[in-house]
Amino acid sequence: QVQLQESGPGLVKPSQTLSLTCTVSGGSITASTTFWNWIRQPPGKGLEWMGSIHYSGSTAYSPSLKSRTSISRDTSKNQYTLQLSNVTPEDTAVYYCVGGSAGYWGQGAQVTVSS
Question: Mean pLDDT throughout 87-96?
């Protein structure tokens, strides 16, 4: 079974870059037709799709976050990474990696932006 696990700092200062890594096991991020996404949920709000990386390596981003978001991957480690630059307290959220043929979810990582 495919499992996803987010990792990264739980606290980031304003104006810094948030960086999270998703480690995938039980499946390959290069498996044909798969997408690997980042989704977040701010406190008291709904889910927000941030972007994705295709099995081919191509990326797509939410228009509202595109200028600050970068998704990359390390196929040798079967990991993909989110970077969100110039964060503000409004970027405080639980961040999820979601992907694979059946849309598997990681458990989520709480990230707080605060000085």
Answer: 98
**CA–CA gap between residue 100 and residue 55 (Å, rounded):** 9
Place of tokens 């989520």: 108
The predicted-structure confidence for 25-69, as pLDDT tens digits, reads as follows: 999 999 988 999 999 999 999 999 999 999 999 999 999 999 999
Tokens encoding 15: 């104006």
Tell me the C-alpha distance between 112 and 115, whole Å.
10
Distance from C-alpha of 10 to C-alpha of 86, rounded to nearest angstrom? 16
Query: Which of 32, 39, 30, 29 minimizes the C-alpha distance to 82?
Result: 39
Give burial (CB, 10 Å; 0-12/13-18/19+) of 89: exposed
